Amino acid sequence: MFAVYLLSTKTGNHTYVGSTRCVPSRLKRHNSGRGGRTTKGKQWVLVACVHGFQSRARACQFERYIKKKARGSQRGHTAVQNRFMKLMNTFEHFREQWNGALRLRCVDHSMIGPKLLNFEHLFTQDQE
Questions:
Q1: What is the residue extent of each domain of the chain?
Q2: Does the pLDDT of residue 84 top 50, yes or no?
Q3: 106 and 23 Cβ atoms separated by less than 8 Å
Q4: With helix as H, strand as E and coil as C, how does the chain read?
C-alpha cells in the first residue's frame, strides 16, 4: 500500500506533497537532508496523509492532482492551509471515484487552524 503525505515547515510558509510506502521513514529522510531537493535545509512536520493506494501509479496520480490544484491561494490562509484544502477536496473526489478505499489521517491540527476543521468527518482516528 502507498500513501500521499503533506508536510509543512513549522511556520506554515512552505509545504511539500509526496508519496511513499512508509511515511515515518520518509519524513526522517526529509529532515535528515536526504529528501527531495526542495525539502533540503528545512525541518518538516507531518500535517496529513492519505493511505490506501493500491499502486504507486495511483498514489502518484493523486499527488500530481494535489500539486496541480494547489496553485493559487485564498486570502487569509497560510500556504499549508491552502495546500490542505486542496488535499481535502482531492481526497473527497478520489474517494468517491475509487469506492471509498482511501483513508485520511490528520496528524497536526494546529497547522490547519479551526476554520478548516469542517473536514474533520473525513479523518480516521489515530491508532498510535
A1: 2-122
A2: yes
A3: no
A4: CEEEEEEEECCCCCEEEEEECCHHHHHHHHHCCCCCCCCCCCCEEEEEEEEEECCHHHHHHHHHHHHHHCCCCCCCCCHHHHHHHHHHHHHHHHHHHCCCCCEEEECCHHHHCHHHHHHHHHECCCCC
- Type of residue at 48: A
- The three grid cell numbers given for residue 120, joined into one nine-digit string: 474533520
Whether the full predicted model's pTM is greater than 0.85, yes or no, is no
Note the pLDDT of residue 33.
77
CA angle (104 as vertex; 119, 38 as ends), nearest 5 = 100
Torsion of CA 94, 96, 98, 101, to 10 degrees: 100
10, three cell numbers = 513549522
What's the CA gap between 59 and 78, in Å, rounded? 25
Residue 126 corresponds to which cell in the numbers above?
489515530
